[in-house]
């Protein structure tokens, strides 16, 4: 898989974890366990995305679904690459 796609998915999972305290199944209002939340974040697909209506950081509002649970989350892509500088005479 494309490393950028994997990195973006990992960031999406982290953002979703931070912004989503509790997930609830709409049909029976059951609170999911941490393991169920983890599994959802690992397997859910992005079924819809659109730019957030507020803000200046190009945040997206995404809808995730695994076929049973559907949840909205906020996603912001970040570049986690570090600049590499080589100094004369430096050893790596």
Low-confidence stretches: 21-28
Order of helices and strands: HHEEE
What spatial order of strands do you see in the largest sheet? 1-2-3
Give me the secondary-structure category.
Answer: alpha+beta
Mean pLDDT across residues: 76
The count of strands amounts to 3
Compute the gyration radius: what is it? 17 Å
Count of helical regions: 2
How far apart the termini lie comes to 29 Å
Strand content: 15-25%
Largest sheet: 3 strands, antiparallel
Which shape, going by the Cα principal axes? Answer: elongated
Task: Give a description of the structure.
The chain has 92 residues and is of the alpha+beta class. The chain has two helices and three strands; from the N terminus they run ααβββ. It has helices spanning 3-19, 34-43; strands at residues 45-51, 60-65, 70-75. The chain has a three-stranded antiparallel beta sheet with strand order 1-2-3. A hairpin with an 8-residue loop joins strand 1 (45-51) and strand 2 (60-65). It is elongated and about 60 Å long. The protein starts with a helix and ends in a 17-residue tail after the last strand. Mean pLDDT is 76; it is low at 21-28.
What's the SSE blueprint?
Blueprint: H1 3-19, H2 34-43, E1 45-51, E2 60-65, E3 70-75
Antiparallel strand pairs: 1-2, 2-3
